[in-house]
Amino acid sequence: MVSMTTSGTKVIPFSRPYLTPNEIPNVTAVLESDHSHGDGTFTALATQRILELTGAHKALLTTSGTHALDLAARLLDLSPGDEVVVPSFQFSSGATSIVSTGATPVFVDVDLATGNVDPAQVAAGITSKTKAIQVMHYGGVPADMSAIMAIAADAGIPVIEDNAHGLGVKTNLGVLGTIGSMGIQSFHDTKNVHCGEGGALLIKDPATAERAEIVREKGTNRSRFLRGQVDKYTWVDQGSSYLPSEINAAVLDSQLEHFDEIQEKRFAIWNRYRTELSYWALGNDIVLMSPPDFIHAAHVFYLHAPTAEAQQRLLAYLRENGIIGTFHYVPLHSSPAGQKFGRTVGNMANTDSFSSRLVRVPLWTGLTSADVDRILATLESFSV
């Protein structure tokens, strides 16, 4: 159903899930089979595609990116009194996964140019209680992993990569999500590749991978049983039910099969925004998204208004013209739960500035050239 403004103009939503050719046939095949729970044929196919795309040692599908973060936190054996250094500018799941273990998220500032965590602030946040560093690759733009990994090595602690935005992004250190000890992916329907709700945990260490299978399967060694490695399975560790259904995996498999096509379409839109808005941005003191070396996932396109007031006016102007733009995260250090459960280190000026001036414009695979023309024209008719 197409939404319309009061003047009869089509509303362009901020995001819309993309449908590839095989979702419906795949789901039909699952529903007509005797196996709709997890770890069936489509789970295996989708998992293999993720491994080929990322080069990870092990990939485990989960019900969401949030559950992948929860699974990673469990594998760290965090407990009350422990701390994990995290960027304040990120989705709440990064912090709730830590809080659920009784540990404390320690919020630090970001790099104003990218929204990614500032390595200098990470170093300042480390204490004798620190058990891990969590980074987020905002918009699929790589965080400074060389610096982060060096800090982690000096402290003798692991790095968890929240790579919900950056599936398949290649860097000189490896594919995002495989550089640290563990990485997570999200397949929520706002992501480039989706299955409605879903995620994955990428694991580097074989011993951790074996334990992760157990924690993911309600604390049992059921996976070993299904492979014929034990004659029956039993409860051997802590755990929960992180395994998605075969229906989700069937959708995800089709999406991953068309990954290159999806990315090509998204990059074409991203490149138009970056190129065609340059003159307008310069004349309005607006800063366009500009990833270092232009390495990114075409997951978002954002701009920074000169002030928070200008951000609000621009978002309202887009809405008035039937275009849904949006801000992004409210910094976790300033949120009610962040103040209750976390600890903040240093000056958060960059985080506050990045968040309060951020405007994201529609970027989804099915946007037409006419849609993009209209978005560009609307933006270019706005004056700060």
Q: What would you note in describing this structure?
A:
- This protein is α/β, with parallel strands linked by helices and 384 residues long.
- The protein folds into 2 domains: 235 residues, Type I PLP-dependent aspartate aminotransferase-like (Major domain) (Aspartate Aminotransferase, domain 2); 122 residues, Aspartate Aminotransferase, domain 1, CATH 3.90.1150.10.
- 39% of the residues lie in helices and 13% in strands.
- It has 15 helices and 13 strands.
- Helix 1 packs antiparallel against helix 9, helix 2 packs parallel to helix 9 and helix 3 crosses helix 7.
- It is globular, with a radius of gyration of 21 Å.
- 48% of the residues are buried.
- The mean pLDDT is 96.
Short description:
The chain has helices spanning 23-31, 41-54, 65-75, 93-99, 119-125, 145-155, 206-216, 222-226, 246-257, 259-276, 278-283, 308-320, 336-341, 349-357, 369-380, and strands at 58-62, 83-87, 104-108, 130-136, 159-162, 170-171, 174-175, 182-186, 199-203, 287-288, 302-304, 343-344, 358-360.
